[in-house]
Design brief:
The structure holds 2 protein chains of 2 kinds.
Chain A: H1 5-9, H2 21-42, H3 47-54, H4 76-81, E1 95-100, E2 110-114, H5 115-131, E3 139-142, H6 150-162, E4 165-167, H7 174-183, E5 188-191, H8 193-205, E6 217-220, H9 227-237, E7 240-247, E8 252-258, E9 265-267, E10 272-277, E11 290-297, E12 308-317, E13 329-330, E14 335-336, E15 341-343, E16 346-348, H10 350-358, E17 367-374, E18 377-385, H11 395-413, E19 418-422, E20 437-439
Parallel strand pairs in A: 3-4, 3-5, 5-6, 6-7, 17-20, 18-19
Antiparallel strand pairs in A: 1-2, 7-8, 8-9, 9-13, 10-11, 11-12, 12-13, 12-14, 15-16, 17-18
Chain B: E1 2-11, H1 16-26, E2 31-38, E3 42-49, H2 52-61, E4 66-77, H3 82-92, E5 97-107, E6 110-117, H4 120-129, E7 134-135, H5 137-144
Classes of the chains: A alpha/beta, B alpha+beta.
Chain lengths: 443, 145
């Protein structure tokens, strides 16, 4: 699709992305003060106020942006312990929407939005989609799940406010997704990268080459994915694959997004203030250093989050992006400290295993990691689907492929893994976030 | 001279072979001979069928991981030392046998064996020069009927 460059650079919707830094910092400080005030006085269970008292900090102590470091952190457990509304600051009559995260253990967490919060979220999503070169001329298929999960409605409101034609397919029924994509002339899709791979696989089974369709961009998020996976998706389907970042605790998708440079994700920092800390010492790290991303909402009314520890590992990129946006970027999030597996004392992330698998030409990232413990020793088994391109009729051919994969894993994470092959399509395809780890160690 | 063998990857799971046979039976494909290589975790089923393209198509469609390999069907004199004779010819040519298995039928007075060589073309030349018959698909499947 032809794109007007002026449209991209001077898109009024994303003007804040190009604001001069002093002006941006001023705006952030003013909004931070207001957010702290709101949380301090209005939080229903008063958790923030108690923590401020314990740290001997008053809202008035916030005089410059650096003072944010004096504020207490918040974590996911806070939301769980104050379930459902304890951290809300807005009165119920002003809350127009609730979302909840899938609780893998126990209760989910609940977040709320005022009318203005929805506007802020839509605005962040418009800017995210503009960054990927999308405009009102696009036909955008939203294949994130609609419902309590923020992905579907978040992308929907953003795409609709952008003025694009929205196709709200939600997740599932993959064959119909492909039919719709083809028949409606879809130009961009929003879903998890693993679901898109599944769509691509299904399309090829149906004899449809995605390259022949109008589809040209994917806005992929809600799970960490590797650069190798991006190359695979782009190479095999001919689309540009963009990484979007967000979390429901902060707002949902649209906290940060890659621009067409595909080199780091711009944080919409007039709304979401980023810091990176050392997760051990909890001390802030300078830009450029890798650590845990901490976010503070600057414009959220219903449930402001202050210094929320995301568990996502990244670094703030200090250099300005070639695209001209002044808002800072974070590096792609390849791992979450939550996903970290400790195997024989070594920290291993699924994205590393994925990258190792993708080093082998012809393998697809359909894999699962099975952890077991025998005689006190951890074992990692990687089950990966064998593909017709790589399958050999000789036992030693199969064994040599196993060794090749085990070596790629060893050279990436330093652990000897047992590699076993699974039949084609025997590893469950996910329509949302992929589940990769099966931990049978009982720890 | 070469014939096509279909190799199928199998996880060791009960009922698995049955699924493959059902797929082939449903398409009216008859299995001429087969061999199963098994390890602790998986097996490789190798099949010779008359219409290998059809067999591959239905297995592909059913989602099996399939590989096509060229193998030789070699006549072996059915008396003591018959196989030895073939092996000596091959051994002299520095060719490696990856694996071998037998056909269930005889071709005239001779047995027929399937050989997977690392260099089938060289094996054909050596065997033919020594007067050992390598059967092509047509002869093979005609002999069967």
């Amino acid at each position: 699709m032809k794109k007007d460059d002026n449209d991209r650079i001077f898109n009024p919707a994303s003007a804040t992305d190009y604001v001069p830094l002093p002006q941006l910092r001023g705006l952030q400080l003013e909004r931070l003060k207001r957010t702290v005030m709101n949380a301090y006085h209005n939080q229903r269970q008063g958790l923030f106020k108690q923590r401020m008292a314990a740290a001997d900090v008053k809202p008035d102590d916030i005089r410059c942006l650096e003072d944010i470091r004096r504020l207490p952190f918040s974590v996911k457990a806070d939301l769980r312990e104050t379930y459902p509304y304890g951290m809300f600051t807005a009165p119920q009559k002003d809350v127009v929407r609730l979302h909840a995260s899938s609780g893998t253990t126990g209760k989910p967490i609940v977040v709320g939005y005022t009318k203005k919060d929805i506007t802020v979220w839509s605005d962040a999503m418009i800017r995210a989609m503009s960054a990927a070169g999308l405009s009102s001329k696009d036909v955008i298929q939203v294949s994130y799940g609609y419902g309590l999960f923020t992905g579907g409605l978040g992308a929907h409101y953003g795409a609709e406010t952008l003025g694009a034609t929205v196709v709200p397919t939600s997740g599932g029924n993959t064959e119909r997704q492909i039919m719709v994509m083809q028949d409606f002339g879809v130009t961009a899709i929003c879903c998890t990268p693993s679901y898109f791979l599944h769509i691509a696989e299904k399309a090829s089974e149906m004899g449809i080459d995605l390259r022949t369709l109008k589809l040209r961009a994917g806005v992929f998020g809600a799970e960490p994915w590797s650069e190798a996976m991006r190359h695979r998706i782009q190479g095999e389907t001919g689309i540009k694959a963009y990484d979007i970042y967000g979390l429901s605790e902060i707002i949902g998708p649209g906290v940060a997004m890659e621009c067409q440079e595909q080199s780091g994700l711009h944080v919409f920092e007039d709304y979401f203030y980023p810091e990176v800390i050392d997760p051990e010492t909890m001390q802030p790290l300078p830009d450029g250093k890798e650590g845990e991303l901490v976010l503070t909402t600057l414009a959220k009314e219903a449930i402001p989050m202050i210094r929320y520890r995301t568990r996502d590992i990244t670094a703030i990129m200090p250099e300005q992006c070639a695209c001209g946006r002044t808002i800072r970027r974070i590096r792609r999030i390849g791992r979450r400290s939550d996903d970290m597996m400790i195997i024989r004392g070594v920290n291993v992330y699924p994205s590393q295993i994925e990258a190792a698998i993708l080093k082998i030409k012809g393998l697809m990232p359909h894999y699962e990691i099975v952890l077991t413990r025998e005689g006190g020793l951890d074992n990692m088994e990687i089950r990966v689907e064998v593909t017709p391109e790589l399958f050999d009729d000789r036992i030693r051919g199969v064994e040599s492929l196993q060794k090749q994969i085990a070596y790629a894993v060893f050279s990436t994470v330093g652990i000897h893994a047992k590699v076993t092959f699974a039949e084609s399509k025997s590893i469950a395809r996910s329509e949302g976030k992929a589940k990769r780890i099966i931990d049978k160690r009982g720890i | 001279m070469k014939i096509h063998q279909i190799a199928i990857f199998m996880e060791n799971k009960p009922g698995h072979l049955m699924g493959i046979c059902r797929t082939l039976a449903g398409a009216g494909v008859s299995i001429t001979t087969l061999s199963l290589a098994d390890t602790q975790q998986y097996g490789i089923l190798r099949l010779i069928t008359e219409s290998w393209e059809k067999a591959r198509a239905v297995l592909d469609k059913a989602g099996y991981v399939v590989n096509i390999t060229e193998v030789l069907a070699v006549e072996v004199v059915d008396k003591p030392g018959g196989l030895l004779q073939v092996l000596e010819i091959i051994g002299g040519g520095d060719i490696n046998i990856e694996y071998m298995y037998a056909f269930t039928f005889r071709h005239g007075e001779k047995a027929v064996m399937v050989f997977r060589f690392n260099d089938p073309d060289k094996a054909i030349a050596l065997l033919s020069n020594a007067g050992v018959k390598v059967l092509d698909g047509v002869t093979l499947f005609n002999g069967m009927n």
